[in-house]
Amino acid sequence: xxxxxxxxxxxxxxxxxxxxxxxxxxxxxxxxxxxxxxxxxxxxxxxxxxxxxxxxxxxxxxxxxxxxxxxxxxxxxxxxxxxxxxxxxxxxxxxxxxxxxxxxxxxxxxxxxxxxxxxxxxxxxxxxxxxxxxxxxxxxxxxxxxxxxxxxxxxxxxxxxxxxxxxxxxxxxxxxxxxxxxxxxxxxxxxxxxxxxxxxxxxxxxxxxxxxxxxxxxxxxxxxxxxxxxxxxxxxxxxxxxxxxxxxxxxxxxxxxxxxxxxxxxxxxxxxxxxxxxxxxxxxxxxxxxxxxxxxxxxxxxxxxxxxxxxxxxxxxxxxxxxxxxxxxxxxxxxxxxxxxxxxxxxxxxxxxxxxxxxxxxxxxxxxxxxxxxxxxxxxxxxxxxxxxxxx
Amino acid sequence: xxxxxxxxxxxxxxxxxxxxxxxxxxxxxxxxxxxxxxxxxxxxxxxxxxxxxxxxxxxxxxxxxxxxxxxxxxxxxxxxxxxxxxxxxxxxxxxxxxxxxxxxxxxxxxxxxxxxxxxxxxxxxxxxxxxxxxxxxxxxxxxxxxxxxxxxxxxxxxxxxxxxxxxxxxxxxxxxxxxxxxxxxxxxxxxxxxxxxxxxxxxxxxxxxxxxxxxxxxxxxxxxxxxxxxxxxxxxxxxxxxxxxxxxxxxxxxxxxxxxxxxxxxxxxxxxxxxxxxxxxxxxxxxxxxxxxxxxxxxxxxxxxxx
Lengths: 392, 307
Fold this sequence. Notes:
The complex is a heterodimer of chains A (392) and B (307).
Chain A: H1 7-23, H2 35-39, H3 45-53, E1 63-67, H4 73-84, E2 90-93, H5 103-114, E3 119-129, E4 134-139, H6 143-146, E5 150-153, E6 169-170, E7 173-176, E8 179-182, H7 184-192, H8 194-203, E9 208-209, E10 220-223, E11 240-244, E12 258-259, E13 275-276, H9 277-290, E14 295-296, H10 299-323, H11 328-354, E15 356-357, H12 361-391
Parallel strand pairs in A: 1-10, 1-11, 2-3, 2-11, 3-5, 14-15
Antiparallel strand pairs in A: 3-4, 6-9, 7-8, 12-13
Helix pairs in contact in A: 1-10, 1-12, 4-5, 7-8, 7-9, 10-12
Chain B: H1 2-22, E1 23-31, E2 34-38, E3 41-44, E4 50-52, E5 56-59, E6 64-69, E7 74-77, E8 81-84, H2 85-94, H3 99-112, E9 142-145, E10 149-153, E11 162-168, E12 173-179, E13 183-187, E14 197-205, E15 216-220, H4 223-239, H5 245-258, H6 262-275, H7 280-292, H8 296-303
């Protein structure tokens, strides 16, 4: 016990964390010069988990995704009417109708949307005010459609506001001119399952990590552009049907309304976007319905965990130093590699089995900084000793 | 009476339970040619259809099938072939790996990636011009059409020998012809094709194997929709009758654009330009329309006229 609890080791641990803390005050963005950082700018360690280890999630047969392709309004009206004839519980339209078009077609579409009173249509928030964290503008579909449906914003948070970064989170509700409005997914679930919706509201989260179930392969999919596919759809009854653009799925990808997600096969670096917006919404809806949220470990626990692991590494390092100093470099490298793999494995298991997200950045950074922290600690101790000697 | 009712209820329940109990898969996605054979009866497989023991699924070429097993796990099938239920069960069960096993396989794969992997240099530092479609099409790549007669055209390439191929969305060839012209007019009725369906077409240079167009698409609208659009077009022309002819054609082009009738749209712009050859605004609209419909080569040929 005496050998493990050592003030020096505690001092080195604290020094490592103080160094990391001080780094946060550096105003210059040194990352600009770091190509690795640039490549991994949009990389989250959990992406590796989603990309490589989650293919075994079950399908969610509550949700039906319908591709609208390039249907015009009269065709959309026909499609919606046909879908509604099978009595789904809610129909979500991931389509924004900003302008009036030809009156007859618009009229048919208006009737189709109004039918059964169970449609949710998207709108779009813009003009975000950083000071009061409100949006100032809400772009809606024209009133003849919007007034006959519920609504929810389709906005998804992304790092630089483009669809070239990975979509990992969603915002359940947002402030628009001091009132709170729901996201598209939340609005759909509110109609389908009040209990699940209330559960989401009670979490009071500003942002939720999307616990992706999968791509289109995890939901029912209907190609709405082919009328041959719209017969015998009795299974739609009481389900959630979301209509949106999926290009020519599953034949090839069209780069419209398509995003990067953690499920991308290339979890870091350059590749093609992998998921259409409507499927992202399907994933969010599925997560809310199943209450399958990913929770973050509280920061203080992450910090404590990082400090304990750092301390353990210092103890181990010094043990190896005492026993076989000649093998220190080799064993240190081997230990760090094994440890890294083990930490990643544990992180993965915790995320997959307990839906708990742990940021291992702090842990890994502290391990990397041990040698430098020890050197700085010894300099500080030497300085303090010499000051004490001078004063006596 | 009570006993009879109870017995009947039990029989119904048992029947339902045994049916539900035998359900192995449910179809989540069925794209292309997918056939379900049950008790020697073959039908087209549909989304939402349940698959039971002793069923057989036949997946055609370029088709895609996605199934959910009774435990919720999904199975995607992209290869053509016949699959009976027991084979499908074997396939879905073989996918089940614990996360620990997947993780260790992944880590091992990362470690054994060696320098030898660089020996087979599969990427080059150059572009292969032959791979890029080298025949430029002259008809919008994705359009609706009203009538059964459609003209497809393309730019000439050396050799002057082409094969035009028309397929359905699953890639089944419906029509093919060799010719030396750079256009072909098809009568879809004579080819016994149906309305309200999409068709794909491409052109190949017979003298140069890799020279092809992109695969283009058109959708022959249902009669009702086509008639409705024609009626609306007629009404529009009546409403704007007093306007200048070139403006009428421009507005008509816009109407066609809204209905994704891009061939008609471009023809309307061409008529407008003939009527007002000095009107740069119309030419600009035409130029934008060409780019929108993928006819960039045609667009670049009129770009000079805009300056």
